[in-house]
Design goal:
about 350 residues, alpha+beta, Immunoglobulin-like, 3 domains, about 50% helix
Length: about 350
């Protein structure tokens, strides 16, 4: 005979705050709490008397801007038919640019450590962008807030599937890291041609044509367009499809993750100009959704930095400038001075 326990997840600091979307992972499957912060957990096998679950939540609320600390909780048959309230403690909020760790769940899961070379490289790049631009720091914050909505569940499932972990590392993580590295060298470091050429080749090498028979671009395009996945999608990816498609609905995370992935794989398989693709990607950053500095002097400085990011591809500046002008019409003069509009 089956037994059930209703889990109610709340904020430890503000117990009236019900945490919808909290992930409940029992070692095999992951479920999420509803709008009331609750999940009815059903145990079909009557011989099972207890289940240990991992509870996590990537909140974007005021009380926990960067999520909650994961907690293990034992669901017991003796609590059959009851509501068990579990509170999560807010995680400490890292300060942008200080080097404090921000969780890169999927990269950590695929590389085996939250302190791997790859994760630390991402943190360093984040700090460079944040130190150079206030708008860049805001953009990173919003990207992470969206990323935390879906990445813990994906990372938890990857931990249980070694094959999927390796495939995601090869098809997604390594191409993204190579892409970000090239973008950093172009926009931040103003690297010389030799360094840029090497970083460009690393992007191409990270997207090898021999990576199985499945066309990765077809999958990425289908995910981004919220279309039915190709019939030859590997079974392990079908399991992750709902989560990945959920991630594609977040506009900032989609720009930061799916867009460069598609561009990287297209560049490698279609012989595109990778540097030009990076320029187009940077120019499409959804900065118009953010609030610009309120005073003219700060806005001038900020727009000058943004224009400087595109020194390697000045022709891409109008793509960014026209969108900013439409969103910030009062900033027309500052945008013109920065060379983002004519």
């Amino acid at each position: 005979m089956a037994w059930t326990v209703t889990l109610e997840i709340v904020d430890c600091n503000v117990t009236s705050t019900l945490l919808s979307g909290a992930a409940i992972f029992d070692g095999a499957n992951t479920w999420f709490t509803d709008a009331n912060g609750q999940l009815i957990y059903v145990v079909v096998d009557d011989f099972i008397t207890a289940v240990i679950v991992k509870i996590s939540h990537p909140s974007t609320t005021v009380t926990a801007a960067h999520g909650y600390i994961q907690k293990n909780y034992t669901i017991s048959k003796t609590n059959n038919g009851t509501i068990q309230t579990v509170c999560l403690n807010p995680a400490p909020e890292p300060e942008i640019g200080t080097g404090e760790p921000i969780e890169c769940f999927i990269v950590s899961a695929t590389t085996g450590s939250s302190e791997s070379v790859e994760v630390n490289h991402l943190r360093n790049l984040r700090d460079q962008v944040s130190a150079a631009s206030r708008l860049g720091a805001q953009l990173i914050d919003v990207i992470y807030d969206e990323y935390f909505q879906f990445s813990p569940g994906i990372a938890a499932e990857l931990q249980e599937n070694a094959f999927a972990k390796g495939a995601v590392l090869k098809a997604i993580v390594r191409p993204l890291l190579a892409w970000y590295s090239l973008a950093g060298k172009l926009a931040l470091e103003k690297a010389d041609q030799k360094v840029v050429d090497q970083a460009t080749q690393e992007v191409l090498n990270a997207c090898p044509r021999h990576l199985g028979k499945f066309p990765i671009i077809s999958l990425l395009e289908a995910i981004r367009a919220e279309e039915t996945l190709p019939a030859n999608t590997p079974s392990f990816l079908l399991k992750f499809a709902p989560r990945i498609q959920e991630a594609a609905r977040f506009p900032f995370a989609s720009w930061a993750i799916l867009d460069p992935l598609v561009r990287a794989w297209r560049s490698a398989t279609g012989h595109l100009d990778v540097v030009d693709e990076v320029g187009q990607w940077l120019a499409s950053a959804p900065l118009e959704e953010l609030n610009p500095p309120s005073d003219s002097e700060s806005l001038d400085a900020e727009l000058g930095v943004l224009a400087g990011f595109l020194d390697f591809r000045p022709m891409a500046r109008p793509q960014l400038g026209e969108r900013l002008l439409a969103a910030w019409p009062d900033a027309a003069l500052e945008l013109e001075r920065a060379g983002l509009v004519s």
